[in-house]
Amino acid sequence: MSPEPMDFQLPQGGDIEAVLERIRATLSCEVEPEATWRRRYLDSFDWLLYGVGAALEEQVAGTGQEPGQGQSRRLLWIDLAVDSADEAQVLDAEPGFADDLPPGALRERLAPVLGVRRLLPMAEVNTRAIRVRVLNDDAKTVARIHLEDNRLSDPVSPARLSARLRLLPVRGYLDEFAATARLLQEIARPVAEPGVLVLEALAAAGRRPGDYSSKLDYRLDPAQRADAATRFILLGLLDTIETNIDGTRRNLDSEFLHDLRVAVRRTRSALGQIKGVFHDAAVAHFKAEFAWVQQVTGPVRDLDVYLLDFPNLRACLPEGLRADLDALRDWLSAHYDDEQQRLVQALASPRFTTLLHDWRVFLEGPLQQAAPDGAALPIKALADQRIWRMFKRVRGEGRAIDAQSPAEELHELRKSCKKLRYLMEFFQSLYPDKSMRRLIKQTKVLLDNLGRFQDLAVQAEHLRETAERMRADNAADVGTLLAMGGLVSHMLEGQQRARREFADTFAQFDTKDNCKLFRRLFLDSSGEQARHQNRHSAGAESDAADAVHGAGQ
Amino acid sequence: MKIVGVYSIKGGVGKTATAVNLAYLSAVAGRRTLIWDLDPQGAASYYFRVKPRVKGGGRALLSGRRELDDAIKGTDFERLDLLPADFSYRNLDLMLDAGKKPERQLERLLRPLRQDYDLLFLDCPPSISLASENIFRAADALLVPLVPSTLSARTLTQLTAFLDSDRVRRAPRVLPFFSMVDEERPLHGDTMARLAERHPELLRTVVPLAPEVERMGLHRMPLPAYAPAHRAADAYRDLWSELEAAVA
């Protein structure tokens, strides 16, 4: 058996030239021509790879033989737990989306993790590697030393990362390995773990893995004043909006715009649903302005949805009609650039910049003296009240829907359901985690059904309008129009299916157990809290809680 | 693990040079490669600067007193290891005959290495003997260097006749190719044309007779490592491509 390779920490400063000189003076060896290459660490904007304990390293050859066998560019999948590369893929261009990579094991592994997101460079490192062969009297290699100098590729301050020295055995030369290890210990200190280079590089580049996620994760204090907690939630959403502007502007992938729009929608929902904490007059303007943002960002999102779903749309037509859809895709793609241009203009407009600026000033400003009644409530009491109310509304609207109900009633229910979901997500940390996850999940199932019902109808209508515009532009022949008709009918069938499935889906939401859980979490607990506060404290807060409890009935 | 025997009944046909250069090219191509120097002269071991000695000799390996694994030495090249020759291999037939199922000893011995390597080259001693039978039994393919002469054509016929006989149960694929071809000699050209007609299994690559190949003994390394641009190195690369396709 061969011994394991040994890692050494280089002395402070980590100058590999000096170490190489000492190795040369101490050991009979041959130094191979040095090699340089560039490493780029890639992940999605929301760190999807890091989330599964992995990193992607793109290596671009510079001078000398490394890396790989004369490959000028390759991509490695790095397992962070063991800091080793599992899968490698030769590339001929900078990697972007998973689908653009050459077929192979790496793409298979990457595609389900990355989804529609683009790989972005998170840190770039310049590596200089020197390979030393330790020789015996026959000039035969009996051990290998790998020396590596890594610097952050930053034109201003190319921070030096830890220099690495690794001693590798050559099979069958145990004694020589041990002797070399002894000599090296006089030069450098052995270390058990050399440290994961990608993590070191990210830290040096000022990147914090996992620093962005579109998921809401607010840690709220139940006793916090409602206006303070609400500002905290809204500030988080504002951060998300601002973080996604650049990627939306550059259209790096469709998720930047999507996340931006979701944060805007959540903002509007919070303003509408967390009632009584701000004066209506103070936020009416913001509500209107965020509605404008939602509207100007809509067209590109609609096209994104179409284009992302295009392969599925194509696949739902009979084989013979599929080619006829190409004209539709071309038409959508051609309009995409115009819409994106308009979107970029809106995001750069004084109206948008002023909105975000004023909104931040409002949220970060001092708490209002003459605040509405709800502002000073503990946030938990307000959350109880709002969620319980919204649940009752969803239940009532849902129960009123039968097979004959018009589509508008389902649309209304969808809106209420979305409000319920957002409220539960904002206030998730105030309640037992497991129960909340169960309720949110069930609400999402119901929302999916309602969403399919409405979205398919909207898409079918949109497609009809598109067909008319294409005809007017002479951009569609009969074949294309017929194929689009096929799609419309497929969508309307799907919509009808969703309508038929509604009763069952709602019944699964409106179970006894579910209602009990809603009652226990949002009604009974607020009652207890109110009683608790009545017993142990006096003053405005308990009065307010009582008032809320009463209002919630 | 695929096993390739580099084999010839006749000596002096460029067998060891072939085994050493192809093993090197296989490692360069990314395959974990082992070369076993079974020739007691130890030329392959010498080319890789490894002492031609196994503790306890061939008998210790065959009897299991010494694991094959322990005797393996790394070469100067990544992914390429060598099992050195030992002078005791001159008595390999006697040692093989001492065990059970004498013609399957080598196959048994190699089994534990299957996970460690993608490709194993056996640099075989010239002869037809019990050792060769063991090699035929274990190998997936036999690379047979042929110097274009009537005599070596006869040895190929002898070999195929032997492999077709009842003695050999599972014959490896035979891959003959022309080796040490002197392009100046008209006789070589004529013989090659005649043989190619009779042996469609002949590989297309022709390895030329070149003093640079003989210098492997001076450089003590594979030819493509010190003279990668030489036409003989090109020939070995072509031969490797043909072999790679044949054993894939």
UniProtKB/TrEMBL annotation, chain A:
SMART domains: CHAD. InterPro entries: CHAD_dom (IPR007899), CHAD_dom_sf (IPR038186). Gene3D superfamilies: CHAD domain. Pfam families: CHAD. This is CHAD domain-containing protein. Residues 529-553 are annotated as: Disordered. PROSITE patterns: CHAD. Residues 222-511 form the CHAD domain. It comes from the Bacteria.
Automatic annotation (TrEMBL), chain B:
Pfam families: AAA_31 (PF13614). PANTHER family: P-LOOP CONTAINING NUCLEOSIDE TRIPHOSPHATE HYDROLASE, PARA FAMILY PROTEIN CT_582. It comes from the Bacteria. Coiled coil: none annotated. This is ParA family protein. It comes from Thiohalocapsa marina. Residues 1-164 form the AAA domain. InterPro entries: AAA_dom (IPR025669), DNA_Partitioning_ATPase (IPR050678), P-loop_NTPase (IPR027417).
